[in-house]
Specification:
Blueprint: E1 10-15, H1 19-30, E2 35-39, H2 62-75, E3 79-82, E4 85-90, E5 96-100, E6 105-113, E7 117-120, H3 127-130, E8 135-136, H4 139-142, E9 151-154, H5 160-167, E10 174-177, H6 185-193, E11 197-199, E12 203-209, E13 212-218, E14 223-225, E15 228-230, E16 234-237, H7 240-244, E17 268-270, H8 281-314
Parallel strand pairs: 1-2, 1-6, 2-3, 6-17, 8-15, 9-10, 9-15, 10-11
Antiparallel strand pairs: 4-5, 5-6, 7-16, 12-13, 13-14
Keywords: Flavoprotein, Oxidoreductase
Pfam family, one: Pyr_redox_2
Catalytic activity: [thioredoxin]-dithiol + NADP(+) = [thioredoxin]-disulfide + NADPH + H(+)
Amino acid sequence: MTTNTSEHEYDTVVIGAGAAGLNAALLLARARRRVAVVDSGRPRNAPAAHMHGFLSRDGIAPSAFLEVGRTEVLGYGATVVAAVVDTVVATDDGGFTALLDTGVALRTRSVVVATGLRDELPEVPGVRERWGRDVVHCPYCHGYEVRDRPIGVLGTSPGAVFHAQMLRQWSADVVLFAHTLALSPEDQDQLHARGIEVVAGAISSVAVVDDVVRGVELADGTLVARSAVFVVPRMVPNDSVLTGLGCAVGADGWVSVDKAGQTSVPGVFAAGNVIDPRAQVVTAAGMGSAAGFAINIDLVQRDIADAVTARAHAG
């Protein structure tokens, strides 16, 4: 795809074509703004067969959902570019230039960063291979589908204890594999009170037979039968574009934004998992809409100022 790189060709460049980015692009394109969406084509939820919790879209395949979104955005005149944004730099006129790995430079008045996050998984054999299928993370995304089945929770993160407590409402058969966790007496008492079994010993692997998870194997060779395994990954935001622009980072290590997604850098907005690890698809879409709304208001205010200045010079 060729792109004219004249100054301020776009009102907004949206980086990332997930729910947050596409919804921001949709709102702005409908506002008749010049919008380019740049995406690498590697969505975080690609391994999952279905997405849930999105009213009217519950059960849709993530790829189908994104295809519908892209079609809608293109229908309103936005441009979608298959590429990776290497960096974004501020320009002297208050705008930005997005430099793509294809060598193309996109000039824009504002930026929406919706690049999501990446899941750092524990180095336990079987976890990465089954990720998004029967080794999963989100109870709200997958809990109903494994209701009343034998569920295992890997103790590879301190968050695993409460994760097991959450999953108890989906199944009466939940096992927490302590692995390297040091459980407090309070943890053990609360787990016991709700009928959650704790299995001691280091985890060797997630056992897979005939392309299906069969259980969790311990270092001593013991196999505990399970049909679904939950893991709490370390979530790392893909925020290099934001930090490269100098956006402020909060005490929690995540880029700070206001309710509309405005960062500390004027004209730079962020939405979705890049700023909130808890945001589900429906939440991210709403965040994108809020950012698009705020960007358009900001651009209108700039358009007014530019028009007044131009009129004064003409007079």
